[in-house]
Amino acid sequence: MENEFSLPVSQPLKFSEPKKIDWQVTRTDTAKPPEVRKFDFDKLPSQPFYPDGFHSLEKPITESKFDINKLPDTAFDFDKIPSLPLHLQTSLIQSPVIIKAGLPRLRKNAAIGIFEFNEDQGLPGAFISTMMQDSQGMMWIATDKGLCRFNGEYLEIYSFIETIFTGVLAGVSKMTEDHQGR
Question: Nearest Cα to 171, choosing from 116, 126, 137?
Fold first, then answer.
C-alpha cells in the first residue's frame, strides 16, 4: 500500500563525481598594503559641465547661517485663531428595514478561522467603509449602500443614500457615539 505523500522512485539518485577544491591562501607577510591616492577637491575644474543645456547661475549662491537655538518662538494663542462656528445639519431618516441576518461563514482557503459577513448574510453593499460598537453592544456597519445596526441576530438597515449616488458621494467614512449614547 502506497502512502499518499511518498513518491515512487524509479532510479536511484546519482551525484556528480567529487572535485578537489584548491584554496589560494595569501600569506600575510608577503601581502602588499593597498595603494592610497589622495584626492584634492580644490583641483577640480571650477566651471561645471551641463550636458542637458542648463545655463549657469547669474550670480553665485550665497551662504546663510542660522542658529537653531535663536529661531523665533512659534507658540501661538488658540483663542486668537480666526474661526467660524460649526453648524451641524440633522435630518430624519426612514424607519429601518429589519431582516434576519445570515450566519457568518468560514472564509475559503483561510489559514485560520476567519469569518465572512457580507451581502450573503444581508448587508447592503459589498464595501464596508467603517464599523463601530456602541455602548449597548450593538455593531454599526456602514457600507457603500447603507448603514446597518447588527444585534447578533437581526440587521436594521437604514437607507439614506439615494439611488442616484454611487456611494462615493454619500458614503459614511467615520462613526462616533456621543456622551448621551446617540
Answer: 126
